[in-house]
Amino acid sequence: MxxxxxxxxxxxxxxxxxxxxxxxxxxxxxxxxEYEVNVLSAHRTPDMAMEYARSAEQKxxxxxxxxxxxxxHLPGVIAALTILPVIGIPIKSSTMDGLDSLLSxxxxxxxxxxxxxxxxxxxxxxxxxVQILSLKHQVLKEKLIxxxxxxxxxxxxxxxxxxxxxx
Amino acid sequence: MxxxxxxxxxxxxxxxxxxxxxxxxxxxxxxxxEYEVNVLSAHRTPDMAMEYARSAEQKxxxxxxxxxxxxxHLPGVIAALTILPVIGIPIKSSTMDGLDSLLSxxxxxxxxxxxxxxxxxxxxxxxxxVQILSLKHQVLKEKLIxxxxxxxxxxxxxxxxxxxxxx
Amino acid sequence: MxxxxxxxxxxxxxxxxxxxxxxxxxxxxxxxxEYEVNVLSAHRTPDMAMEYARSAEQKxxxxxxxxxxxxxHLPGVIAALTILPVIGIPIKSSTMDGLDSLLSxxxxxxxxxxxxxxxxxxxxxxxxxVQILSLKHQVLKEKLIxxxxxxxxxxxxxxxxxxxxxx
Amino acid sequence: MxxxxxxxxxxxxxxxxxxxxxxxxxxxxxxxxEYEVNVLSAHRTPDMAMEYARSAEQKxxxxxxxxxxxxxHLPGVIAALTILPVIGIPIKSSTMDGLDSLLSxxxxxxxxxxxxxxxxxxxxxxxxxVQILSLKHQVLKEKLIxxxxxxxxxxxxxxxxxxxxxx
Amino acid sequence: MxxxxxxxxxxxxxxxxxxxxxxxxxxxxxxxxEYEVNVLSAHRTPDMAMEYARSAEQKxxxxxxxxxxxxxHLPGVIAALTILPVIGIPIKSSTMDGLDSLLSxxxxxxxxxxxxxxxxxxxxxxxxxVQILSLKHQVLKEKLIxxxxxxxxxxxxxxxxxxxxxx
Amino acid sequence: MxxxxxxxxxxxxxxxxxxxxxxxxxxxxxxxxEYEVNVLSAHRTPDMAMEYARSAEQKxxxxxxxxxxxxxHLPGVIAALTILPVIGIPIKSSTMDGLDSLLSxxxxxxxxxxxxxxxxxxxxxxxxxVQILSLKHQVLKEKLIxxxxxxxxxxxxxxxxxxxxxx
Amino acid sequence: MxxxxxxxxxxxxxxxxxxxxxxxxxxxxxxxxEYEVNVLSAHRTPDMAMEYARSAEQKxxxxxxxxxxxxxHLPGVIAALTILPVIGIPIKSSTMDGLDSLLSxxxxxxxxxxxxxxxxxxxxxxxxxVQILSLKHQVLKEKLIxxxxxxxxxxxxxxxxxxxxxx
Amino acid sequence: MxxxxxxxxxxxxxxxxxxxxxxxxxxxxxxxxEYEVNVLSAHRTPDMAMEYARSAEQKxxxxxxxxxxxxxHLPGVIAALTILPVIGIPIKSSTMDGLDSLLSxxxxxxxxxxxxxxxxxxxxxxxxxVQILSLKHQVLKEKLIxxxxxxxxxxxxxxxxxxxxxx
Lengths: 167, 167, 167, 167, 167, 167, 167, 167
Hints:
Eight copies of one chain form a homooctamer. The first copy, chain A, has six helices and five strands.
């Protein structure tokens, strides 16, 4: 349906989020989605963050993935300035066990949704992006079916291993 | 890009969720998205729920919105059986202020994402669905831009009213 | 020390916050602080909110009070774009008993403080603003001392009343 | 009353749950309950999990013990497809201190109970299974009485040791 | 397999728990389980509660259902003195939204399990009792299958109604 | 006023609580309060625990300190069977950060109070016992005054040290 | 042992706490404990509160009961300035369901204990005071035994009533 | 506008808070704010703490920063006795992940505000103090603008580094 490669923007509020966000990037690579990674802070680089949000669609991005911790405003602030779907990853920091990040991202007021995944759920953020992109890029649908089958196989193998081990 | 109308499935775990879910339906109507509404329980009608999930893509649905309360398994169980993006709405019930529904939906394990919105965030579930559908259905993009402008105007009007009232 | 009247900006994310925020306004009136009230949403009117934050100091405002609920980004987004002290009021909404608003406002990352008061603590937001303004406007110091004395007297009167009633 | 050996099914959502679930298995062994262990995911192997639930009774299982973490749907999904009693073990994962797993398992809607034990309470899951099985298998009753007596003795011994040590 | 009627003990820590516990009793009636209801407090009538627990098995009870609120010790105290399976119902009281009752019941230490259901989950407590009793009383198995079918039918009817109403 | 030495009973639900409870014992030693230490479980040795509670007053104990973790029933069960003041120490275990222990101890229903101290607050449990005992044993009052003075001096010394270090 | 009447001080942070605190007063009346009631705020009348704490022992008070809500500092501040046992009642206010009051009172640092009862647990605060006073005033011991017997009888009566009603 | 150097008081409830509070001191040094550091406990040195609060303004302090953990009363107690703005830093201790400290500081009753920053948010406490002081000390305004620019530059550099690394 589309000749262009699917294209996602990955942003994070701090470079300390990278160890978690790397799992998002690995999924995008695996599914051959074009991506751009940026450290952009809603609080320390507000102008850059907002400019990025405003121009994302025109630059060809089709979905934005934003990770942030504590009072995690980045995904919501980005969502305010674009009509692209925005996926939010709440990052667990040193206090409150991630609850602050989760509530700051998921409890968005009416009008500005953020598609929130689990605390530190970076792999799922990547997969959700691929599912969304697959509406337009049919090739991703087959890959998603294969990915599901791979996951199933992996569980079956682990099941077999455990059965040998337990008895 | 597409001649078909965009098409969304809306399901809820109990008919008592309808007063909240109605806001999702209103958004879909406003954006002229075709939709089908079902009460399907992951626990009381598991076979129907699973069959629905498995066949959703073939029936032409492009996104699934699932609302559920308490130990809210419906969105995750649906997501396990489809490659379509699944949006989860945690419904607040009589105890725990919605925290049980939220955690049961958002904390999905790696491999099976659910795009979670706020507790009782049915309007945003509809808008997120429209944003996702707009990847394929360009006409929705313009409507989203207009919706954003309408929201902005509404706030400005309220601002003017408050200024008159406060002073 | 200063001939100008002290001047505060009061903003709220939604007009539904007004019944709470009114208590802030009453304090500002009582202390004869000049103020301006606006409904400005970090999400629905992001450009206006940011423009407001950027120009606040030049317009003569000396402190900003921002109230918001749920994923309450307004105070933090404002604080990102000004060097004025920003006071945040977490507004309790229909779910999570205000915990979402509180954490979204108080858990700000390093570099961008928000002076957070109690959930629905609008009166204290006003008093904190007056305390801050009193650094420059000496006249407020005397009024603060009188306000403290009034509060003390009110408790003493209540104590006397209760003693009559209880025995 | 019954000539058959009592028989329990033990399933877990991920092989990473085994270190906890092993305590369940040790109890079943100690009480000479026949058991089968499987890794079955409500999300990654939904068909296998559901088929397992549907056929469990016919295969002679009398009780099912299901362990899962985060948005822990496995026990509830199994319970939806069997009339056997299902015992749920909430597994603590890396965020939220087990609260997400607990609420996802215990807060089941009316109609589909899951007998929930403590977070990581695998030993108690085993004992609860034995108590349930003892309704039909009288021999287990005597063993339960002995187990209770052993626990009592162990506490008494520890008490004696502490008394020597403390004074 | 058994000629006796199945028999359950229902106890609650306070008569104020009855409006919730009534749903347990209705289930027991519906499944023709013999039952006895008592108000017994772990704190105000500790001797009676303990004597009741100790003699429950000899009196022919096969399962005990115990409801309690706040620091809800009743189910655990009963479980300490019997080898019968004990089902705990956390009752929501005026503070903490039921979280205190839930944690006081479900977080039992190793050795003494309590089969915990949802906060105010009295209907499920009854159904879980029936599932447990069905191990010995085969007749209950058929009734459970019919109950599941009834629940399914009820959801299907609600689904049909909603479809008429929504469109 | 009294010739007897003041006398306290210290009990804990598990020997694993001793590292925390040791701080209680140190305080009792320091204030020359006679004490007896026991491991007694409300769940594993219910008869011993209850017998201990019933006979505590006659054995000359004047206050009981009870430590327990998770669904911490020990202090409440003891309080149900004595008219002595019972002090409860919530012990933090491996999940829920001590919240389960705290709520299980502090949220006692009307009629049976437990004087609850902080999570792992064993030192304060000892001091509270001494304060209570000082009603009858005047000699403790002087020691409490000296203890308060010692604490004050310790803070002042730390203050002096920090001042040297910081500048 | 003592000819004086037992004597307790009852203080509350705000006159709005009286409807709860009244239950404390009723218990003190019932047990014929002399008492004085005051509204004293740690924040609005700090000097009076502190003076009250400092002089309480000399005025013949033997125990202090302090009720407060939100960031409830009153019991701790009082405890800092007296060696009398201080009982704290966390009052539930309009947000956070009493959790803020509970944690502000119970989580006292080492050295300054506050004997904390349940949220809104005013009746138990009174009973705990009586238990503490009974160390010195033997007459209270008999009354406590009678009170326990009354409670037991009340539960038995309720049990009889429910049995008539349920069947 | 002012010839005096800006002057802040930094106090903490325990010397164990220093590793966190050091970040406040570094900010004050960086902005050339005069400061005095003290360990003062609301509970162990109440008289000193109160005397300090009462005389702070006369000694030339313009803002007070107070750090405390657990039932963190220090900032509120100080705020009760001064009209200076008081900034509160909730310190995370060994239980409850800082939630107890946060609620004890932020949930102040009407009349006595404490400007609360994030749990362990000592750097922001310093910056907030500087923003407040800048009302009177114009020189700080320029430094704040430069600080904001530095933060922005730091993020941009990190962004550049990550881009090199990720691709």
